[in-house]
Amino acid sequence: MGSVTSEQVDAQTVSPARRWNYWLGGKDHYQVDRDSGDLIAKAYPAVWTAAREGRAFHNRVVRHLAGAAGIRQFLDIGTGLPAPGNTHEVAQQMAPDARVVYVDNDPMVLAHARALMIGGATTYVDADLREPQRILRSAELNATVDLSRPVAILLINVLHFIEDDAQARAVIRTLLDAVAPGSYLVATNGTTDFVPPEVAARVQASQAGGRAELWPRTREVFARFFDGLRLVDPGIVAVCDWRPDRADRPAPSEVSTWGGVGLLG
């Protein structure tokens, strides 16, 4: 892959990765990302807490998979910009031999990945979730992980960018068909299940007006992403309630994100 130059980073077009970094309290974003983030937060205030709790969920899941579950390979799609507790940091703290492949299609993410993540047991694929075959065929992935052995597929805070439910299920099925029994799917998706009807209406109005491209899903729709998998306890719950490690966690209504972990085979 060629190097990323500053000209390739578009400061005038919203970047989901930079916007998420803004919600997480990071510094890698532009005014266009902040404006978009504020607009979505106005309709969907839970997004600030959802970003932080999504990261906390990610860390708990990776610790479980690299620890008790014995997983040594991770495919993190839609990784976003580096933040405390990146997948390779959490996994390799638990298991130094863990191997991690990050996937994203944002030039700024690529620039950071090259500077901070690449080398040895950690690599990066420049691709979009909507092109799973391109991800699976990439030289970087195949040089780093062995798909004939179990791998954890992480789809955290990324499925809500695919509006069509059938397309999202097809992407997941393509990925799962390529990995070995004993692999895991980790997924989250925003939802309006926990919020009052007036908040759900504001979110729907933002989508209809083209001001937001985050597509919430009901628990029923989200659960279909795990068809054919055995759900790991406690099943599909708000991300704050998946094996929590603190008593003062927010309520599901403050997070409004479903999360789950499923075992293949």
Helix content: 25-40%
* Number of discrete helical segments: 11
Structural Rg: 17 Å
The biggest beta sheet reads: 8 strands, mixed
Average predicted confidence as pLDDT: 85
Pairing-aware structural class of the strands and helices? Answer: alpha/beta
Number of strands: 8
Shape: globular
| Percent of residues in β-strands | 15-25%
User: How do the helices and strands follow one another from N- to C-terminus?
Assistant: HHHEHEHEHHEHEHHEEHE
Can you tell me the residue ranges where pLDDT is under 50 for at least 5 consecutive residues? 1-7
Query: N-to-C terminal Cα separation, in Å?
Result: 35 Å
Short recap of the structure:
The protein is built from 11 helices and 8 strands.
How would you describe this protein?
The chain is an alpha/beta fold and 265 residues long. The chain is built from eleven helices and eight strands. The protein has helices at residues 16-23, 31-43, 47-66, 87-94, 107-116, 132-137, 139-144, 165-177, 197-208, 219-223, 252-255; strands at residues 73-77, 99-104, 122-126, 152-155, 184-190, 229-231, 237-238, 257-264. Strands 1, 2, 3, 4, 5, 6, 7 and 8 form an eight-stranded mixed β-sheet that branches. Strand 1, helix 4 (87-94) and strand 2 (99-104) form a beta-alpha-beta unit. Helix 1 crosses helix 2 and helix 3 (47-66) runs parallel beside helix 4.
What distinguishing features does this structure have?
8-stranded mixed sheet; alpha/beta; 40% helix; 265 residues; globular
